[in-house]
Every structure is written in C-alpha cells, then in structure tokens.
Design brief:
The chain has 14 helices and 13 strands. It is α+β, with helices and mostly antiparallel strands. The chain has an eight-stranded mixed beta sheet with strand order 3-2-4-5-9-10-1-11, sandwiched between helices. The chain binds flavin-adenine dinucleotide (FAD) and iron/sulfur cluster (SF4) (2 copies).
C-alpha cells in the first residue's frame, strides 16, 4: 500500500518501556504486542538456529564448507559503493539498499536504527517511509535498538511489505515471528555484530581511549587488527587491538548476551552486509532470492570484486582460546605484557590472517568465547543455547561438549 508522508520526527513513535528479561538485548519484542512470545522467539531463551535456517533457506548450513562459519550463503563479494555516503559506517551499502527498496516501491517501510538526538551513540529505532529518512540511520550506534517494537506501528499503518535492518539477535526473533506477522513481503538486511554493550558502558570505553571522548564521531574495529577513531575536527587515530585498555574494563563490561551470541554473521538475514572479509572494503553475503534482489538494486553503484584469503588462523585462534580458558571467561588479552603489545600488534598486521581467513578467525574466536563464557557463568544454559555448528567450529581447538552440555536442537 502507499506510504503516508509524515515529518521525520513524527516517524518515530514513542516506545513502551522494556520489561525485565534475563539475558535480553531489548530487540523490541518485549515492548510490543508480541511480548508474550519472547519465550518462543528469543535467541537467548529458546534459540532455534537450525530450525530457522531451514525455514529461511530451506536447509541448514553445510558444515563441510565455509558455511560452517558464515551460515547458508549463495554468493559472497568484496564490495564498496563507488560514491561512499557521508556518515556511513563503511561506504553505506546497507542504508543505500534500504533507500532503494523505498525508491523502487518494493516495500512500504523500512525499520532501521538512527541516533538519539541527544547522543549520537544511542540507538533510536525508526520507521522510515521516505528514502531521505534513511540518511539518519547511517553509522553504527553502540547499544541495544528495540527496532522490532516498531512492527506494531507498521501494522497499525497498514504496511504489509517491510524491510528490517538489524543485527542477529533481532533477526532471530523476527524470523521466529515472521509467519504470524501477516506480511506480504519481508526483506531482512542484516549486519554482523559482536561485542555490543550498553551505550553508557560504551561511553566509559571511549573515555579510556581518548581524553576527548565527547568529540569522537566514529569507531570501528578494523580488519587489520586496529581500532579507528575519528573526531569532530576531522582527525583520525588508529589503536592496535593489543594496546586497547581492555585490562581496565570491568569483567562484566560486555554483557553475557553479547559474549554468548553464536550467530556472528547474521545467517538468518536475506543479505548480510559486513566488513570482516573485505580487506578494507565491505563484505556481502547473499543468502536468499530476496537477498539477490536487494543486491541487484545497487549493483551498478558498486565496485564488486572477489574476496581474498591469506594467512593461517590456527595459531592465533589457539592462543586466544588458551588465554580465554586460563582467564576462565574473563577478557583474554590481560596477560600480554605492555612492552610486547606494539610488537604483537605490528606482527598481526603484517602476517595475520586476511580476507576470508580473518573472518573465519573472528567467527572461531567468537564461538569459543561463547562456549567458555557460558561454561563459566551459566553452565545450565549451555544445552539450550549452544548450536551444533558452534561445537563444530570450536572442535579443532579442543573444545568439546562435556556431559550435559549438549542436546539435540528442538525444531
Ligand atoms: C554493535 C555492532 C557491532 C558490529 N560488529 C561488526 C563486526 O564485528 N564485523 C562486521 O563485519 N560488522 C559489524 N557490524 C556492522 C558494521 O558496523 C556495519 O554496519 C556494516 O558493515 C554495514 O556498513 P555500512 O556502511 O553498509 O552501514 P550504514 O549504511 O552506515 O548503515 C548502518 C546500519 O546499521 C544499523 N545499526 C546501527 N547501529 C545499530 C545498532 N546498535 N543495532 C542495530 N542496528 C544498528 C542502522 O539501521 C543502519 O542502517 C557491527 C554493527 C553493530 C551495530
Ligand atoms: S525476544 Fe528480544 S525483547 Fe524478548 S527477551 Fe529476547 S532479546 Fe529480549
Ligand atoms: S553481539 Fe549478538 S547478542 Fe549482542 S547485540 Fe550483537 S547480535 Fe545481539
């Protein structure tokens, strides 16, 4: 149906407060008319990775191929927008595709995440019906975005063809509820996600990185083992991972939800737009026919090329897993002496895994981290929360389920 034109601020309805849920990333379902379904839809309460892969892709991932790490996929590309968009996290492919979905009338509305007017880092869910509204959604915000609460607003306005831009925990709940939303079409544009935390905690982190945290406009964990900071005055700073002030962070700095999240690459989306395998560009994972259709919307605006892969992840991931085991679920780089960190950082950039091998590295680290964190903090949740593919990914590093830690996934 035709979109109603509203001024941008009116396009952001007030959300209900979030009721308390243990292990919750406030995806918005608990604030919506679907609140009673958290117990069935949530990736932390009732994860159904295999069943939802079958629902979305008609099959589960092939554990004998790179799908073991990245989920079901039809094609992958290295990509960048020839004309990068200002304010985007990378070149802005995600929001450009969302714009095109509205421009072409393929959807009535896009649910995405803008910034809170009072704090550029705080997520603000937004229901966009006009392409120009999506410029506000560019860039990563740190914190939880209750974007799925806007499903009610979309339904109330009679929208039946929707796109949702979201991270994996949001997409898991969305897919679990998809059949009962009564939609004519749903386009799911996912990004990978890792190491999220509350916006308040993120501000603490910025305060440790720089003496002018309020001037930081951009932060990204680059694929060359450095963090990039950009400031309001246009200056940049690169900090090697090994020199991050991780030892100064409290143990619960990253919530257990995000330390025990097993779908790093958002495998239930139609199209995932990330950067890990992109070697400085972006990384597209086309997963479904709708994902392929979304790529076609911007193909002519993209520089596309094959993905590369080099280096050998086994030693660095093995070292990471051993450090993590020793710290019993704490943050893993505490042990490296200060003097050695610049050298280790340089070695990582020079010889470390690159391209797809870097992406496999990060996925393996995340699976090991999730398993060990749950074992240390919520062992009773392991049977339910750890998917079989995570055990398969972690197996080469000596991580295997102990009695009682694994159960056949309910479908
Ligand atoms: C917390 C977090 C961690 C991430 N970690 C990784 C990672 O480890 N590896 C990787 O490859 N990619 C990661 N990403 C995705 C990455 O930052 C880029 O968003 C993605 O690569 C797309 O870039 P772009 O220029 O196309 O995005 P843009 O065009 O700038 O669009 C960004 C989109 O992200 C959405 N968004 C922004 N903040 C949030 C949020 N807090 N919650 C939900 N949606 C949000 C907005 O709706 C927006 O449409 C992460 C994203 C988030 C939010
Ligand atoms: S479904 Fe969403 S709102 Fe409900 S408990 Fe899970 S993360 Fe929280
Ligand atoms: S790390 Fe996982 S659980 Fe945390 S916000 Fe990202 S997708 Fe959700």
């Amino acid at each position: 149906m035709a979109a109603t034109v509203l001024p941008i601020l009116e396009a952001v309805p007030a959300l209900a407060p979030a009721p308390h849920r243990d292990l919750c990333t406030d995806c918005g379902i608990s604030r919506s008319s679907h609140a009673a379904s958290c117990g069935k839809a949530c990736q932390f309460i009732h994860p159904r990775h295999d069943a939802l892969e079958r629902q979305v892709h008609g099959r589960t991932r092939d554990l004998a191929t790179d799908e073991r790490f990245f989920g079901p996929v039809r094609a992958m590309h290295r990509a960048r927008l020839r004309a990068p968009r200002p304010g985007a996290q990378w070149t802005g492919i995600t929001t450009r595709i969302a714009e095109r979905l509205l421009e072409t009338g393929m959807v009535d509305a896009v649910l995405a995440t803008a910034s809170d007017p009072a704090d550029r880092w705080a997520p603000r869910p937004m229901l966009c019906t006009r392409p120009e509204e999506l410029a506000e959604c560019r860039g990563m915000k740190m914190g939880y975005s209750p974007v799925l609460a806007l499903l009610d607003e979309a339904a109330a306005r009679g929208f039946t063809r929707l796109a949702v831009v979201g991270v994996a925990c949001q997409v898991h709940a969305l897919r679990a509820l998809e059949a009962r939303l009564g939609l004519e079409a749903l386009y799911v544009l996912g990004t990978p996600c890792s190491d999220n935390t509350t916006t308040a905690r993120f501000h603490e982190f910025l305060g440790l990185l720089t003496d002018r945290p309020e001037r930081v406009t951009y932060l990204e964990f680059l694929a060359d083992f450095r963090v990039e900071l950009r400031f309001e005055d246009g200056s940049h700073r690169h900090i090697p991972f090994m020199q991050l002030p991780i030892s100064k962070l409290p143990r619960d700095f990253f919530p257990l939800t995000c330390r025990a999240c097993f779908d790093y690459t958002n495998s239930l989306s139609d199209l995932t737009v990330g950067y890990m395998a992109g070697e400085g560009d972006q990384w597209l994972l086309v997963r479904t026919a709708r994902g392929a259709a979304m790529l076609e919307l911007v193909r002519e605006e993209l520089a596309l090329s094959p993905l590369g892969s080099s280096g050998d992840r086994r030693a660095p991931v093995g070292t990471f897993v051993r450090m993590l085991e020793r710290s019993a679920g704490g943050l893993p780089v505490r042990g490296a002496p200060q003097w050695a960190r610049p050298l280790i950082g340089w070695l990582q950039r020079r010889f470390g895994p690159k391209g797809l091998e870097f992406a496999r590295t990060r996925v393996e680290m995340k699976m090991a981290e999730g398993i060990l964190n749950l074992r240390a903090e919520r062992p009773q949740r392991m049977r339910r929360m750890i998917p079989d593919f995570a055990w398969a990914i972690a197996a080469p590093y000596g991580l295997a389920p102990r009695p009682g830690e694994r159960v056949e996934e309910a479908s």
